[in-house]
Write a structure and sequence with these properties.
By secondary structure, the protein is an alpha/beta fold. It has eleven helices and nine strands. The protein has a seven-stranded mixed β-sheet with strand order 4-3-2-5-6-9-7, with helices on both faces. Strands 1-8 form a two-stranded antiparallel ribbon. Helix 2 links the parallel strand 2 and strand 3. Helix 7 crosses helix 11, helix 8 packs across helix 9 and helix 8 packs across helix 11. The longest helix has 12 residues. The chain starts with 16 loop residues before the first strand and ends with a helix.
Length: 266
């Protein structure tokens, strides 16, 4: 094992490590790793959750970490679990998860809060094998992802997840559960995905439409979408789909967004 030196947490990497053993136990119980499960963990940290997951019957665990300064905390895990563990050093936002073999079926992680949205898009794009995610995220992120229509928290990723499966908040976690103690509250977010509409995450027109629609929330959706595709007769499309001309982006159901997308694809 590499000798451990005093470790300084890096704020720019969002390093707030989960230290509450009771919360760690609840995470593993909720994820219910079973024989045959291949799990991906993003953000190994000091390996606390990593070791808990490997104590389960899961078949294999991939764990990704960007900070080589954490190597002393992780160096012995491969020796303790030969043939069941692979530690990947690198940037989680740059990885191509489709190259992992065996392909992960679950993602269980305490992810850096500053990359929550781009990381989830990345995983949806490049990890089609995963149908289950259990993620510790900032509480505000969980509220946005699970926000229903006609709420101010509603945003593109949540709309997409609503069509591809379901997302729910399962446990609020106080700052005291982490070291160092963050200035924000956290939440355990559970996402279950089906096979339907998984292609939306890689569809440029879908993501572009949502991005434009939500770009200026105070503006009417009709005006926002005109900047996305000027060639589309948006007033006619809205009337045909029963969408009011004064509607805002957050008011639409996921099904209405999908109907809009199907119209412009034609």
């Amino acid at each position: 094992m590499i000798e451990r030196k005093p470790f300084r947490h890096k704020k720019n990497l969002g390093q707030n490590f989960l230290a509450d053993r009771n919360i760690l136990r609840k995470i593993v119980e909720r994820a219910a790793p079973a024989a045959g499960d291949v799990i991906l963990e993003v953000g190994s940290g000091q390996g606390v959750l990593t070791r808990e997951l490997l104590a389960s019957p899961c078949t294999f665990l991939f764990s990704m970490e960007i900070d080589r300064g954490l190597e002393p905390f992780l160096s012995d895990i491969s020796l303790l679990h030969p043939g069941r563990f692979c530690l990947i050093w690198g940037d989680a936002l740059e990885a191509d998860y489709s190259l992992l073999s065996p392909a992960p079926s679950k993602v269980v992680a305490n992810i850096p809060y500053n990359i929550t949205t781009p990381l989830l898009w990345k995983l949806l794009e490049t990890l089609p094998s995963a149908g289950y995610f259990l993620l510790m995220v900032q509480k505000e992120s969980a509220e946005r992802i699970t926000a229903p229509p006609s709420t101010k928290e509603r945003y593109p990723l949540g709309v997409t997840l609503e069509l591809t499966g379901s997302a729910r908040k399962v446990l609020n976690v106080p700052p005291a559960a982490f070291r160092p103690v963050p200035a924000v509250h956290s939440c355990l977010l559970e996402i279950t995905l089906g096979k339907e509409h998984r292609e939306l995450a890689t569809d440029g027109s879908w993501r572009g439409m949502l991005r434009s629609g939500f770009a200026q929330r105070r503006k009417k959706l009709l005006n926002n979408l005109k900047t996305f595709r000027e060639d589309i007769p948006w007033p006619e499309v809205f009337a045909e789909l029963g969408i009011g001309k004064n509607a805002r982006a957050e008011e639409l159901s996921a099904e209405k967004w999908l109907a809009l997308h199907q119209k412009i694809k034609k």
